[in-house]
Amino acid sequence: MKKDMTLDDITDNAAENTAAETVISSDDAVFIAIEMGKRILTCGGEVHRAEETISRICTAYGAVTVDVDAILSMIILTADFGNGDMTSFRRVSDVGVNNLGRLAKLNALSRRICAVKPSKEEFLTLLDEAERSSSIGAVKKLIGAALISFGFAWYFGGSLLDAALSALIAVPMWLVLNLLSRSNMNAIVAKFAVCFMGGVGALLIGRTGINCNLNMIMIGDIMNVVPGVVLTNSLRDLFGGDIMSGLFRLCTALLDAVAIACGYAVAILVFGGAV
Amino acid sequence: MITEEIIKGALMMIAAMIGTLGVAFAFNVEKRVLGWVLLASFLCCVAYDTTTALGGGLFVASVIGSSVTTLYSYVMARIIKTPVTVMIIPGIIILVPGGKLYYTMLGAVSSDMAMFSQYGKEALLVASGLALGIIAVTAISRPINALLNRMLRENQNKI
């Protein structure tokens, strides 16, 4: 069934394909497809999207059958380019940093690959260009973090002063989180440490006697680390049939939530019930 | 009185937009889709507040809020040609129950079991409503998208 469908798709543009097929080996095609899938997963794309991209690229390069299974930590691809099945595995790491601009760029790139079928070298240049033009500047991230804390501390019922103080604490919190994740610190421990810091910061501000609502300050800062997006995506994966990825994300979200709660909890316990 | 309510609502809206803008920055949303993402968040806010004002509970309001945003995101993603996740994630961020999770934790820390279970249940309700809204729209949009793609391809073949 699947064979027939893919064959149909190929015959549509078989004429244009033949020229490209002679140049690009199936090894390179598999490399390009799986590399794209991996990049899509690491910048926060859905599993479903990664699988579809890999399948499309392989088909564009002339694969007769494509079977791909991706979970968040691994991609398994079996493709037949007319000379027997070849299977490739790829370990995926660093999942969890959302870069939606890069996702959009990669998505556009995958369409382009299907249309022009570049060679491996051309592909690497294109990929490099797409990634370089979509890396997030540290300043932009920092402003983002401050705005999140400001906006949500205000949105959840704080005063403008609470919001400003929340944004003030978000800046060092983000800097430390960035530093810890760069030094390969365990992600859960890093979240715990940063939340402890945020809690202590808010409680210290409370000690100074400024007329502010500590709950609102902490809520604003929590919105920076809260795994709400991960949780939502995990439920989407689960209901969409990607059970493994759904469970993977669910576990990540729960561990993060526990780390965040512990961080703030320890801060509150140490500095007394000043809230 | 009514004008006060409106001003308060407008201020909340501005706060929500600032938060969404922050998320868009942190997640590196492209400039060209930034406006559309803010509009998604705005629609989410309006849908949620309207449902609440009409007497809908937390769960219903978050289902409606997230399904309206997701529907808008699917349509816009097709028009401006961007992955739908780019629209949905910043769009629904205001429904993420950060405040409720915080109070749940606070309840646990201060051994206030009533507070813990109350906010814990509310956070779960909102999160599952949020996911349900997205899932419902996604489930419908996949066959529709496939149909649209097939129609487009047939049209191209005719030409």
Task: Provide an overview of this structure.
The complex is a heterodimer of chains A (275) and B (159). Chain A contains twelve helices and three strands, in the order H-H-H-H-E-E-E-H-H-H-H-H-H-H-H. Chain A is mainly α and 275 residues long. In chain A, strands 1-2-3 form a three-stranded antiparallel beta sheet. In chain A, helix 3 packs antiparallel against helix 4 (47-60), helix 8 (160-182) runs parallel beside helix 10 and helix 11 (228-240) runs antiparallel to helix 12 (243-270). Chain B has one domain (2-158). The longest helix of chain B has 46 residues, at 113-158. The mean pLDDT of chain B is 88. At the A-B interface, helix 5, helix 7, helix 10, helix 11 and helix 12 of A face helix 1, helix 4, helix 5 and helix 6 of B.
Order of helices and strands of chain A: HHHHEEEHHHHHHHH
Percent helix of chain A, as a range, is over 70%
Largest interface: A-B, 56 and 50 residues
Distance between the termini of chain B: 61 Å
Distance from first to last alpha carbon of chain A:
63 Å
Structural class of chain B: mainly alpha
> Proportion of β residues of chain B?
under 5%
Radius of gyration of chain B: 18 Å
Element string of chain B (H = helix, E = strand): HHHHHH
According to DSSP, the number of beta strands of chain B is: 0
In total, the number of strands of chain A is 3
Specify the number of helices of chain A: 12
The overall pLDDT average of chain A reads: 84
Count of distinct structural domains of chain B: 1
Tally the structural domains of chain A.
2
How large is the count of helical segments of chain B? 6
Main beta-sheet annotation of chain A: 3 strands, antiparallel
Beta-strand share of residues of chain A: 5-15%
Write down the overall geometry of chain B. globular
So what's the overall shape of chain A? elongated
